[in-house]
Design goal:
This protein has 274 residues and is an alpha/beta fold. It has 2 domains: 69 residues, no CATH class; 153 residues, Vaccinia Virus protein VP39 (Rossmann fold), CATH 3.40.50. 42% of the residues lie in helices and 19% in strands. It is built from 9 helices and 10 strands. It has a 7-stranded mixed β-sheet. Strands 3-5-4 form a 3-stranded antiparallel β-sheet. The protein is globular and about 60 Å long. The relative contact order is 0.13. The chain binds S-adenosylmethionine. S-adenosylmethionine binds next to loops.
C-alpha cells in the first residue's frame, strides 16, 4: 500500500477513535484542512505517525484538549464584518421588535466576541431586557474565556474600529474597564446570555429561536455535514425566524434552501418562510 494511502487510513481510524471515545465527530470535516491540523499536532507532540497520535489521544485527555484547540479554529473579533451588524440592526431588529420575547442562538461563539457584539447591539436598540442569547461552542476552553469577558487590551483598537464602522451609538470604551494590559467587559452585558457546550454535529436542538447567528463555523464542514447542521437550524427556528451566516457561507445548494427567503444576499441573512 503506498505511504499516502496508509496515512489516509490512519487518519480515518484516528477520526473514528475520537468519535467513539470522546464523542467528537470530525469525520465529515473538510479533509485537507483536518489532515494539516492533525499533522501539526502530531509534530508538536513529537510523534512520527498519526497512529501514534491516536494512541496518545486515547490515553491522555489533556492531549485531546490540545488537539481540540487545533481542530476548531477560534479566530473571532467584536463587530467582525461591521456591515453584517449594520444589516442586523437595519433589517432584523425591526422583525425582532415584533416579538414580546426574543430567543437568539449563537452557536460556534468561540471566545465570546460575537456574543458581546450582539449583546451591545441589543442594548443600544433597547431590546436587551426581552432578549436571551444562548451562546454555544464545542470547545469548553473558549467558553470559559467567553464567560470571563476579559480580552487583551491591544485588541481594543480593532474592536473599537469595527464598532465605529458598524455605527455604534455610544462610546465603545464605556463597555469595558482596563486592568493593566487587559480589558474586562461590563458583566451586565451578559445578564441575558447563557454559555453552554454544544456540538453542532452530534447534539440535538434544544429550543426554538427567533434568530440564529452561526458565522464562520460551517466553512470547515463538508457538504453532507453542512446539510445536517442546516437541518438542525431549520428545526430550531420559529417560522419567520432568521438565520445569519458568515460572508463565505450560504444556504444555497443545501437541502433546506427552498425553505428560506433571502433578506440580504451580501450579509447572508435568510428568513425561514416554510
Ligand atoms: C472561526 S470560529 C468563529 C467564531 C465566531 N462565530 C465568528 O464568526 O467570529 C469557529 C468556532 O466554531 C466552533 N466549532 C467548530 N466545530 C464545532 C461544532 N461541531 N459544534 C460547535 N462549535 C463548533 C469552534 O470551536 C470555534 O470556536
Amino acid at each position: 500500500m503506498p505511504r499516502e494511502d496508509v496515512e489516509d487510513l490512519e487518519l480515518e481510524l484516528l477520526l473514528e477513535a475520537l468519535y467513539r471515545h470522546y464523542g467528537y465527530d470530525f469525520r465529515e470535516y473538510a479533509r485537507a484542512s483536518i489532515k494539516r491540523r492533525m499533522w501539526r499536532r502530531m509534530m508538536e507532540e513529537g510523534l512520527a505517525t498519526l497512529s501514534g497520535l491516536q494512541e496518545r489521544v486515547l490515553h491522555d485527555p489533556a492531549c485531546m484538549e490540545r488537539l481540540l484547540l487545533d481542530l476548531s479554529i477560534n479566530v473571532t473579533s467584536m463587530f467582525r464584518d461591521p456591515t453584517f451588524y449594520r444589516a442586523v440592526r437595519d433589517k432584523i431588529v425591526p422583525l425582532l421588535r415584533t416579538y414580546p420575547f426574543i430567543r437568539i442562538w449563537n452557536p460556534g461563539c468561540s471566545t465570546g466576541e460575537e456574543t458581546y457584539s450582539l449583546a451591545i447591539l441589543l442594548r443600544e436598540e433597547g431590546l436587551e431586557s426581552r432578549a436571551r442569547i444562548y451562546a454555544t461552542d464545542i470547545n469548553a476552553a473558549v467558553l470559559q474565556q467567553a464567560k470571563e469577558g476579559i480580552f487583551p487590551l491591544d485588541r481594543m483598537q480593532e474592536f473599537t474600529h469595527n464598532y465605529l464602522r458598524y455605527g455604534g451609538r455610544c462610546s465603545f470604551s464605556d463597555y469595558y474597564k482596563v486592568y493593566g494590559d487587559r480589558a474586562r467587559f461590563d458583566p451586565s452585558l451578559l445578564e441575558h446570555a447563557v454559555f453552554a457546550q454544544h456540538n453542532l454535529v452530534s447534539d440535538a436542538s434544544f429550543n426554538e429561536f427567533n434568530l440564529i447567528v452561526c458565522r464562520n463555523v460551517m466553512i470547515y464542514f463538508d457538504r453532507a455535514l453542512q446539510d445536517k447542521v442546516h437541518d438542525l437550524f431549520y428545526r430550531s427556528l420559529v417560522r419567520s425566524g432568521v438565520l445569519a451566516l458568515g460572508h463565505k457561507e450560504s444556504i444555497r445548494f443545501t437541502s433546506h434552501a427552498d425553505a428560506y427567503e433571502e433578506l440580504d444576499r451580501q450579509e447572508k441573512l435568510y428568513r425561514r418562510v416554510l
